[in-house]
Amino acid sequence: MWLQLSSWAALAALFSPLPAKATSLARDAPSDSTNSPSAAGTFAGTWYTTWHNGRVPIDNIDWKKYTSVSYAFVTTDPDHMVSLTADDINGTIFKDLVSTAHNQNTKVMMTVGGWTGSKWFSLLLAENYTRSNFINAVGAMANNYAVQGVEFDWEFPNKQGVGCNTIDKDDAANFLLMLQEFRQNPATSSYILSAAVSDKPFLNATGQPMEDMSEFAKVLDYVTIMNYDVWGSVDGILGPNAPLNDSCAPSEYQHGSAESAVDTWTKAGFPADKLVLGVPAYGHSAAVLPNNAYNNSELSIYPLIYNNASQVPGDSWDGKSGTDLCGVPWDYSGVWYWTNLADESLTSSFINANGTPRDGIDYLWDDCSQTPRAYNRSSQVMLSYDDVRSFGQKGTFIQEKGLRGYAIWEAAGATDVLIDAINSNMTGSKRP
Ligand SMILES: *[C@@H]1O[C@H](CO)[C@@H](O)[C@H](O)[C@H]1NC(C)=O
Ligand SMILES: *[C@@H]1O[C@H](CO)[C@@H](O)[C@H](O)[C@H]1NC(C)=O
Ligand SMILES: *[C@@H]1O[C@H](CO)[C@@H](O)[C@H](O)[C@H]1NC(C)=O
Ligand SMILES: *[C@@H]1O[C@H](CO)[C@@H](O)[C@H](O)[C@H]1NC(C)=O
Ligand SMILES: *[C@@H]1O[C@H](CO)[C@@H](O)[C@H](O)[C@H]1NC(C)=O
Ligand SMILES: *[C@@H]1O[C@H](CO)[C@@H](O)[C@H](O)[C@H]1NC(C)=O
Ligand SMILES: *[C@@H]1O[C@H](CO)[C@@H](O)[C@H](O)[C@H]1NC(C)=O
Ligand SMILES: *[C@@H]1O[C@H](CO)[C@@H](O)[C@H](O)[C@H]1NC(C)=O
Asked: The whole model's pTM is what?
């Protein structure tokens, strides 16, 4: 409804017009152009979250290292269709991100949804009427903030995410209808269109991953495969956070990886150069007792987490106050961002800035997942993370598989050394 739309539009209108420069940035090649050169290795992306703006201001990031940044998040809401979150309710951060990134010739996307912003997707997309209102609301916001594209991050179609999302067996089919209508609508047809997705394709009406995603590939410029949190504390085992490979792991520990995800998505009809690999500038930590932490004299790759109902705090950005949108109290995440991990001034971290383990820390490179892990014997905390070496390997993998590129979660957690490691092994990521 335009009435509903007008409330945020009025809010956005409080701000001065966005720079004209925005419109001069070229859109990605249209998805139906068969003669265009491959987009392989050309995409160096990240997300900028509003809630870390106070930690790492927009000006502190060298946007020239990225070809694209997505604003996180615009959330779904049943009344206004889409809205900014409380930590950027006036859109000040959004505006600043767009003008700063555009000044460095970096494209800006707008991510709609996310873990806590997917609650109403199912409901909004189910009816023709609400679906077209939703498209209009998203298009109007994209236009108002002068972004080049829109990324939908629905966690997840026909599968519960945060715990209280609306959900329906026809979610994937309705998602496809919405994307097709988004492409057809003259007001939204020229935006870059993408989706953030899991290692496996969307679940169909009978709850199985779809085997044919080619209709999605026709309307989306690319999907970003969120190959992280593959193992988290909820599994009771601290496996690799972002495995590059898992077909070399014992069968009971094959939970997904970049390799198996790319295999699944390409078999389902997605061209490799429409796949962006999501990579984490963070690791997960958890309490692990010494007798589970070691396998002979080496660190275990799949250790049992001790008392997994009580998560240990991660880095200094971690907190547990308040409740989530479902009314469940927030627990610690146990997350360590690379920025903090590699911070020499933090005595409680696991590694030095050059990536070597600190005194009292045991370290293991896992040849299968091609990721490191570290263990503090005194505090009995283990960390499964990514570093310069694993980012380099992921860059090589992107290049070899002909993927479009990578997207780092998230800009505030990454440092130049990490971005350079993945860029250096991707020939196409060099900025003009
Ligand atoms: C948002 O705008 C309102 C109205 O102009 C103002 O009162 C409020 O302080 C602003 N909030 C922030 C976080 O800037
Ligand atoms: C809803 O949209 C679908 C797909 O465009 C169309 O086939 C159908 O007729 C529409 N239904 C109504 C009630 O308008
Ligand atoms: C869902 O996908 C599975 C294969 O992954 C297929 O066997 C099944 O028929 C599909 N269900 C529907 C409703 O399309
Ligand atoms: C703890 O781990 C067990 C498996 O060891 C799992 O069944 C249970 O769901 C986990 N509990 C929580 C709260 O994560
Ligand atoms: C993954 O492991 C399999 C089995 O060991 C191996 O054949 C394949 O080359 C590995 N892939 C990568 C990207 O390391
Ligand atoms: C311990 O090491 C053996 C041999 O490498 C391996 O088969 C087993 O899965 C490992 N156990 C854990 C918990 O990592
Ligand atoms: C390891 O844990 C101990 C006990 O909590 C702590 O004092 C120490 O700073 C930690 N070491 C490192 C290098 O983080
Ligand atoms: C690039 O890939 C090669 C081979 O996989 C690897 O040895 C090298 O360390 C990688 N570069 C970086 C910066 O990690």
From this structure: 0.90
